[in-house]
Write a structure and sequence with these properties.
By secondary structure, the chain is α+β, with helices and mostly antiparallel strands. 20% of the residues lie in helices and 38% in strands. A six-stranded antiparallel β-sheet has the order 7-6-17-14-9-10, with helices on one face. A six-stranded antiparallel β-sheet has the order 13-12-11-8-15-16, with no helix packed on it.
């Protein structure tokens, strides 16, 4: 889904603090904006002052300088308040990012000329329930994962779509992913790649044992319930710290009430151009960031 041209005048510039080159470039970007008379606030995504400005909608756009992990954290912060995100890639992959390291001056010039549009991507909402009591709620841009914990043995997880049982998986885990997440953990588990504008939930088993081994794409609007039937299982949301699950616990997954918004340039074919470039090499090999 695209929107009319986007022309912001107030900016939050957030850097991934563990990458010195990203911090340096973010500071240069912040100075570049200020030199042009634009309102700009610089910091890390963890900085309370920067978070407050975003949560209070004091800025019109967040520029996230880092990798895909930085974009995920920015989405969790910005999506609830409808703030679009422009990513500058300093990571290895950058499936979520269109602008590469030293390209940001040209990209910002285009942005300030109104030559940009907003792409909307579905997020997932997950609820953990135990004995019909809610234990927690989360939003995810990539995926919700129910998988084995410390014990190296498969777990049993049943999946129901809109109240109808699909199957019970005996596997290392089960991924419920968005179209955005189809190029993340789901891709590594053998799932299909979905166009980013789709609003479907993708189910992919992880190392299934004598069980269904194919991905399932649910209809738009469907909700899925993942129930732990046996084994030591945990829940992870967008790769965050695992949460222990008990036998009988349910994880309810549906489309979220809001979407992540990303600033894009040119035509929507950027996604396939990025994808082809990454598939022709493996940029994840090398120094870990």
């Amino acid at each position: 889904m695209t929107s009319p041209a986007f022309l912001p005048r107030s900016f939050a510039v957030a850097a991934y603090a563990r990458l010195p080159e990203a911090v340096q470039e973010a500071q240069a970007l912040h100075a570049w904006l200020r030199a042009r008379g634009l309102e700009s606030f610089y910091g890390r995504l963890e900085d309370l002052d920067l978070r407050r400005r975003i949560e209070n909608r004091e800025v019109e756009i967040c520029i996230a300088v880092g990798g895909d992990g930085t974009m995920l954290r920015a989405a969790h912060l910005c999506a609830p308040v409808g703030i679009p995100i422009l990513g500058i890639n300093f990571g290895r992959l950058g499936f979520l990012i269109q602008v590469q390291q030293r390209e940001w001056p040209q990209a910002l010039e285009r942005l300030l000329q109104g030559d940009a549009w907003i792409e909307h991507r579905m997020m997932l909402q997950a609820e953990h329930r135990r004995s019909d009591q809610a234990q927690g709620h989360w939003y995810a841009l990539n995926e919700i994962v129910v998988c084995r914990g410390a014990l190296i043995r498969p777990i049993h997880v049943s999946a129901s779509a809109d109240g109808h049982l699909l199957t019970t998986y005996v596997a290392d885990g089960l991924i419920a992913a968005t179209a955005t997440g189809s190029t993340a953990y789901a891709l590594a588990a053998g799932g299909p790649i979905l166009p980013p504008e789709l609003r479907n939930i993708l189910l992919i088993p992880i190392a299934p044992h004598l069980s269904v081994d194919r991905a399932v794409v649910l209809s738009e609007g469907s909700a899925v319930t993942l129930t732990v039937r046996d084994g030591e299982a945990v829940l992870s949301v967008d790769g965050q710290a695992p949460i222990s699950l008990a036998i009988g616990d349910e994880v309810l997954v549906r489309a979220g009430d809001y979407s992540a918004q990303f600033v894009r340039f040119g035509d929507a074919g950027y996604f396939y151009r990025n994808l082809t470039a990454y598939m022709n090499q493996n940029p994840s090999i090398g120094i870990s960031r």
